[in-house]
């Protein structure tokens, strides 16, 4: 199956999204490659940095390896430290001591991608565009089960001069995620507001969110694009830091037929096709877990801390801003398909060179 070729192509994409949104505890500078998948490029301006987006590749595989688990084994589920894992914590807690699920929470996308390529996980939570990349690289070997995280990016200012996207013109914006979803989302929003990302603003790309946070805190009237929980951490460290623009709102204001997304749940096609009842049961329980997390923040924050995703104190403040959801069926197809279309129109490599076919979208509607 030429797994090395798969991984060399896919891991470049793995730095995609905005998926490390709640990946870190907001103060640790050692893990930037989690839920939002920021790339590891050096600090540079948008016009000079080389994109780390996945290149189109002629080397594909015919299918994902078949299930490597024995019969009657628990469903193997993996997620990144961040909103996807946070939304799963009630299900994780309810499953303790049972043989239904085997959960693994990892810190970086390059740890989770091989699980699909090697067939060592059944269901995984990945950045939204990586699902499409994996679909193309495996020639249809994965299925999208649900959208689990909407946008988690915010334009923050250490001051009070930015109140709209138009106010960003002439500004320097600190950001992480060059060649990944943060760049695609920001560029799309800027261009749609008649702002040239290469001429009208200076985007200073950092390798980690912690670097953006440090630059924001050190410079008065500075601007940074940050995910949660870094926004919460910034405001904790400096009361003068404010959310100037919610990029979800900025995206919605454009009236495009899509939403700004961060993460999705995917499954190996072989597993989903062979075990539809198990997949549907997982989705039902995952949906209930997401509802619990969103509606019982104090208890959920304790679970998030218990599973070492982020500290409970950070989770308590960040959960309401993490846009944790569980959207399936036609609504998922509309939101995810529209989002991938926007990425494809701006940079085809971001979705693996082409949009996935209809069989990428798993058909499941919650009862009632």
What does this entry look like structurally?
The protein has helices spanning 3-13, 83-87, 89-94, 109-117, 128-137, 181-192, 209-218, 230-237, 247-252, 269-274, 276-295, 297-306, 312-318, 329-346; strands at residues 75-80, 101-106, 123-127, 142-150, 153-158, 172-176, 202-206, 223-227, 241-246, 261-268, 324-327. Helix 6 (181-192) links the parallel strand 6 (172-176) and strand 7 (202-206). The N and C termini lie far apart (42 Å). The model is unreliable at 1-34 and 36-63 (pLDDT under 50). The longest helix is centred in the last third of the chain and has 20 residues, at 276-295. The chain is α/β, with parallel strands linked by helices. The strands form two sheets. Strands 2-1-3-10-4-11 form a six-stranded mixed β-sheet, with helices on both faces.
Tally of alpha and pi helices: 14
Q: Tell me about the biggest sheet?
A: 6 strands, mixed
Biggest sheet: strands side by side, in what order? 2-1-3-10-4-11
Binned strand content:
15-25%
The chain-level structural class is alpha/beta
> Which of globular, elongated, flat, extended, rod-shaped describes the shape?
globular
Order of helices and strands: HEHHEHEHEEEHEHEHEHEHHHHEH
Give the termini separation: 42 Å
